[in-house]
Design a protein that fits this description.
This protein is of the alpha+beta class. It has 2 domains: 207 residues, Up-down Bundle (Multidrug efflux transporter AcrB transmembrane fold); 88 residues, Alpha-Beta Plaits.
């Protein structure tokens, strides 16, 4: 049987290879905020000569991109012009040029009229950030509160296992691993390919957190069952390794199904959801890895108190053959 536990420091090193560059990038550059965080301008457009459904999101994006507006959001509606229903759209863009906004507006409208026929600007207004610092702070507070609830819940749920609080702490550490991976990769991609974070990024991050904890609990639950029915002389490390092997097919099958779905959306889905799907895919891969190769391994490190050898405080004790109190 393959020993995943014996290679635990290899798995930790692989995680650090991803987390450390991302943490450095995040510390130096942070995230690239989208217009949901930074605010911008709201354009109310009417395509006078076009019927509803005849104007595409990608075509509108290309026109705005050619005039200096990247990462816009387009929401199509309809409008009544001279008693006729025509295509209309509400377009959210970054802020207008501070030096000459009039020229920038005229250039965009001329390009739209050239592409789609007569196009009218029914309204144009500056808008603030929909995701404010207060909203972000509230999300952070909610995550911290969720961590405390997870800690209490897992401590109670695993009360029949030795040291139940360890399961809650290790689940939270695995969750933080996934958050750091996503934030770091998003920071790097922001510098390399201009990935911007928006409201959907925050949604994806919260989804990843819930996914990570759920997948970790599946592995931990099998460890608990095997601890209750452990055989004489079977070490804690052997039980953890056996539990990982038992849950591995389930984890791989579930995550592959989700991964292929996300991959299809990433390749063939619309531009407006591409960043969301990309972040979810990164979080899925990280969550699967951390649940199997990090969270369960941390239980073994804690059981053996291996940090004593890290700081030169003597040899780490081996795991007892039987659990405390058995």
């Amino acid at each position: 049987m393959q020993s995943f536990v014996k290679l635990r420091y290899v798995w930790f090193a692989l995680s650090l290879l991803v987390i450390v560059p991302g943490a450095v990038s995040f510390a130096m550059f942070g995230l690239r905020p989208g217009i949901d965080f930074s605010g911008g301008a709201l354009w109310d457009l009417q395509f006078v000569t076009r019927e509803p459904g005849s104007v595409t999101t990608e075509a509108v994006r290309q026109v705005f991109a050619a005039n200096g507006f990247e990462g816009i959001q387009v929401q199509f509606t309809t409008a009544e012009v001279d008693g006729t229903s025509v295509a209309a759209a509400v377009v959210r863009t970054p802020a207008l040029s501070a030096s000459d906004p009039g020229a920038q507006i005229d250039a965009v409208m001329a390009a739209l009229s050239s592409q789609f026929g007569e196009t009218r600007r029914a309204a144009l207004q500056s808008v603030g950030a929909t995701v404010s610092a207060e909203s972000t702070r509230s999300a952070v507070i909610a995550v911290i509160g969720a961590c405390l609830v997870i800690l209490v819940y897992l401590t109670l749920a695993f009360r029949r296992a030795p040291h139940p609080i360890r399961y809650g702490v290790c689940a939270i550490l695995a969750m933080l691993h996934d958050v750091l991976v996503v934030l770091g990769v998003a920071s790097i991609l922001g510098q390399v390919v201009g990935l911007e974070v928006d409201a959907l990024f925050l949604t994806a991050l919260l989804t990843i957190i819930s996914f990570s904890v759920h997948d970790t609990i599946v592995v931990f639950d099998r460890i608990r069952e095997n601890l209750i029915g452990r055989r004489p002389g079977e070490s804690f490390a052997d039980i953890v390794n056996h539990s990982i092997v038992q849950t591995l097919p389930r984890s791989i099958n579930t995550q592959l199904t989700t991964f292929f779905t996300l991959l299809a959306l990433l390749l063939f889905g619309g531009v407006s959801i591409r960043n969301l799907v990309l972040i979810l895919t990164i979080g899925l891969l990280s969550g699967t890895f951390s649940s199997i190769f990090n969270a369960a391994q941390l239980l073994v490190v804690w059981e053996h108190r291996e940090w004593r050898t890290w700081f030169g405080r003597g040899s780490a004790p081996t795991a007892p053959a039987t659990p405390p109190g058995a």
